[in-house]
Amino acid sequence: MGMEVGEKKGGAMASMNVVPLIDILLVLLIIFMVITPLSPKGLEALVPQPSPIIEAAPVYKVVVVQVLENGQLKINEDAATWDNLGLQLNDIFKLRAEKVAFVKGDDTVVFGAVARAIDVMRSSGVEKVGLMTAKLETGQ
Questions:
Q1: How far is CA 6 from CA 16, 18, 126, in A?
Q2: Alpha-carbon gap, residue 95 to 102, rounded angstroms
Q3: Which of 56, 90, 116, 132 has minimal CB crowding within 10 Å?
Q4: Is the alpha carbon torsion for 139, 117, 119, 122 positive or negative?
Q5: 105, exposed or middle or buried, with CB in 10 Å at 0-12, 13-18, 19+?
Q6: Whole-angstrom distance, CA of residue 1 vs CA of residue 17
Q7: Three-state DSSP class for 126?
Q8: Opening angle at CA 132, ends 89 and 87, nearest 5
Q9: pLDDT digits (tens, 9 = 90+) for 40-99
Q10: Is this model's pTM higher than 0.70 or not?
Q11: How far apart are CA 89 and CA 50, in angstroms?
């Protein structure tokens, strides 16, 4: 703050020196201009890409492996064997993000066959295996 003293009629008159204030404001402006690009921009997100269209085979949302009483296997409605079950499941799940499948066994099937199917499914990359029963299908 400056003060003028002299032969003026009004006596002492105070006037503010704004030069240091402008210097401080310019320094703050430069600091904020430098800091602004360094601020975080948010979270990086992975956007899911559309899967390639497979026209030959029907695409099933839910994969069900059926173990029939005569030792036969089905994946949804397609016939399968114990030898190619793992390969078929690998082909189905190689383009899917969710690796979830279900096992459905007939009432007369030995549990060992169902356990074998679960083991083959887990070894072919299926992360979650669910069991389906006749009551579950009817909604009871």
A1: 17, 22, 94
A2: 18
A3: 56
A4: negative
A5: buried
A6: 5
A7: coil
A8: 10
A9: 666 666 666 777 766 555 556 788 888 888 888 998 888 888 888 888 888 888 888 888
A10: no
A11: 20
Q: Provide the H-helix boundaries in 2-78.
A: 19-35
79 close to 73: Cβ distance less than 8 angstroms: yes
* Residue 89, CA distances (Å) to 54, 62, 65, 77 in order: 16, 12, 9, 14
Residue 117, classified by CB atoms within 10 Å of its CB into exposed (0-12), middle (13-18) or buried (19+), is buried
133, two tokens: 């029963």
Strands (E), the chain: 2-4, 13-15, 63-67, 73-75, 78-80, 100-105, 128-132
CATH 1.10.3720.10 holds for 63-138 = no
**Domain range list for the chain:** 63-138
